[in-house]
Amino acid sequence: MRLFSILCLLLLSLGVASRPRSRSRSWEKKVKESSVGAGVTPRSEDFAFNLYRALASEAPGQNVVFSPLSVTMSLGMLSLGTGSHTKTQILEGLGLSLQQGQEDKFHKGFQQLLERFSQLRDDLQLSLGSALFADPAVHIWDSFLSAMKTLYMADTFSTSFGNPEMAKKKINDYVAKQTKGKIVDLIKDLDSTHIMVLVNYIFFRAKWETAFSAKNTQQKDFYITPKKTIQVPMMNREDEYYYILDQSISCTVVRVPYQGNATALFILPSEGRMQQVESGLNGRVLKNWLNTGTKSRFRLYLPKFSIEGTYQLEKILPKLGIRDAFTSHADLSGITNHANIKLSEMVHTSLVEVDESGTRAAAATGELFTFRSAQPMTVEIKFDRPFLFAIVEGLNLLFLGKVTYP
Fold first, then answer.
1. What is one GO biological process annotated to this record (predicted)?
2. How many C-beta neighbours within 10 Å does residue 328 have?
């Protein structure tokens, strides 16, 4: 099989307000080459991990998967059309400094990122984009449409929401096409009170730098809990990997590179320490994992998995301080002159598939971040209990998740 990809999608729907340490030189070179457009928000990784914790707390003991880049980009586009407290909440929620010029730098960062993604080589498929579907009866400010197209390269479509079924089909067909058929029927319900839908998608497909052999894959026990096991197809391969023992939050990290400028990080908490690891995740930890480690030879056991997550972010983001956009206090005056609209729904769907050939989908240190590189004490590292993963391109965190049930 070909190595596969990871898919992710974000949708925003607006309705009327009355509607209820040893560093790899080659890796450093790759990161340097991809620095244009990277780190589009100063603390966007911290937002990503805050969002992860919020999503995980909503579904304890379940799989989690989402695209921090897609969510951040969608909120960035939304902020173009907001004012007053609504804009402040979004930017502060994303960890963006409100000092003069920072907002413009944030949007320009996405513009550069999109331009770079459009020029990626064939060994890494990565597409990121957006579309705005707006009812022709609603006047959208030219300035907003221009900013969407210039900064975020967004497609725009005139869509009559007076015929909700036709509008739903038009939007879902667009999403299915952009995600190579991986995400279908994103929108379940539309009605005539909706006037606008903003969609953001990300599609990722990459092959492992060195593939796992399918003939080595065997059914093995996966310990969902110490007393509950299931049988899973477990891949394994002996090779040299970058290995990190992070004693500050009690976990082991293995970096597995893709062809092209991307890598997967698989994070295995020490026995009984999942909560400690989840609580300790932040942007500095991620950067240390990407730039620190000892290359060691061992046999890696990793389950094949396919996980999907759908989240109603209008219920999650208020916990991170982004509230007004979903209430009658929403200030969307930068989008339209209609005063009585709000963001009624924000749906995010992600799909990640990992197999022998690859994945489909769509350094600051301090007292709390003391790392120590170490050789593995055994010749095997087995991901045979719940673990976390991150997929990174350059410095951009594309996907983040937890595998509890492979």
1. spermatogenesis
2. 10
CA–CA distance, 282 with 377 (Å, rounded to integer): 27
Tokens standing for residue 363:
């350094």
Domains in the chain, ordered, with CATH? Answer: 5-207+307-353 (3.30.497.10), 214-303+363-403 (2.30.39.10)
First to last CA, the chain: 19
Six-digit token pair at 227?
A: 């007393």
Distance CA 193, CA 8 (A): 27
pLDDT at 375 exceeding the cut of 50: no
Chain centre distance of CA 232: 25
C-alpha span between 193 and 353 (Å, rounded): 36
The encoded tokens of residue 376 equal 């593995």
Rounded CA separation 247/304 (Å): 27
pTM higher than 0.90 = no
Q: What element of type H or E holds 400? A: strand 396-403
Evaluate if residue 333 carries a pLDDT over 70: yes
Quick one: three-class SS letters along 84-122?
Answer: HHHHHHHHHHCCCCCCCCHHHHHHHHHHHHHHHHCCCCC
Closest CA to 110 of 400, 396, 401: 396
Please give the Cα distance from 84 to 61 (Å, whole number).
38
Q: What are phi and psi of 300, to 5 degrees?
A: -100, 125
Residue 337 has pLDDT above 50, yes or no: yes
Which among 119, 45, 107, 6 is positioned nearest to 396, based on CA atoms? 45
Q: How many residues does the chain have?
A: 406
DSSP calls for 277-339: HHHH--HHHHHHHHH--EEEEEEEEEE-EEEEEEEEGGGTGGGGT--GGGSTT---TTTBS-S
Q: Which residues contact 309 (CB under 8 A, 6 or more apart)?
A: 55, 63, 64, 65, 66, 348, 349, 350, 401
